[in-house]
Design a protein that fits this description.
Blueprint lengths: L1 H16 L2 H28 L7 H21 L3 H25 L10 E2 L4 E2 L1 H22 L5 H17 L4 H17 L4 H21 L1 H11 L7 H13 L23 H32 L5 H25 L17 H18 L15
Antiparallel strand pairs: 1-2
Helix pairs in contact: 2-3, 2-11, 3-13, 4-5, 4-6, 5-6, 5-7, 5-12, 5-13, 6-7, 7-8, 7-12, 8-9, 10-11, 11-12, 12-13
Amino acid sequence: MNAVAERFGAALDRVRSYDRPLLIIAAILFALGVLFSMAASPAATARIRIEEAFYFAARQAAYAALGVVVMLGAAALDPRQVRRVGTILAAICLPLCGLAALIGPEVKGAQRWFDFGAFSFQPSEILKPALIVVWAWMLGESMKQRQFPGHAIAIGVFALAAAALLSQPDVGQTALLALCLGALLFLSGVALRWVLGAGVLGAFGAWAIYSFYPHARERVDAWLNPEGDAAYQVNRALDAIAAGGVFGRGPGEGVIKRSLPDAHADFVFAVAAEEFGLLASIGLIVLFGALAFRGLSRASRLNAPFEQLAAAGLIVLLVTQAAIHVAVNLSLLPAKGMTLPFISFGGSSMIGSALALGFCLALLRDRPGAYVFAGRMTR
């Protein structure tokens, strides 16, 4: 009994060391994911002729429960274990992304998943937080040892990941990872020539993708010319957002969502806007803004370069992905098929987002010597 009591006390002390505001934000996001899935599920099931109206909502609740377990499990790791687990996951998921492009089932012109019947698995969703951890490790070592080729290794790993993702093809995830790596390079104090070089390479890469990937070219053209049939989804999303007004039509009262493909996934923000209104939409954006502010402010106070970069990079990953999703729904960016972290339907997306936030909680928790000034650890 004493041993059990000691272990329980140690576990309780560890939970107390987690950042409470981030835990509260995570709890709200998990709950909103289930709520918005309930709003989008009836329209999605009717469109694909599934009899159970809340089929997607029930599965999303199960994914959210699994996500909580993954987040808390990752949060229990120490920084060295985070680095080890991230590296192992990157080593597993990177070749799996390339394998999915070869043998995965084709869905809407892309091969990104492994189909196991009852569920499917998208390795790129797990790869994203794992790569952030690997890049932070390499760049952190470069900050401590100037002769260490961390920048070259990080860029080389990105090149491998980009090749695997573009072979599927998945332009959106490639662009997201490029933005995250750029942010990490900037935070690690990279020289200006690297920033300029990355900008030139990014512009060349965008031109090459537009020129050689017909699917990406069609989406960009549809964004530039929204009157055509190719922009149908985005136009319906804009109609749904406009129809919601300030306070929304009410839960379950959305109409335009019935004609909106991928309402439960890529356009869940539009569904939420139609049923819950402008105030709820702004509230969701503010929630991700709070996640960014709290996470980055805490990361800036950490002592170790790896922990600083990894925590900041994981927050940038989640917030940038959310920003891209909202921007696509508002027709501010071409359609990319980007999920909204914790909110959009999808098991792989939920687990990847939970893993990223769990790693972040592990790195940001209060522990001796973690922060530059002990007084700043107080909430």
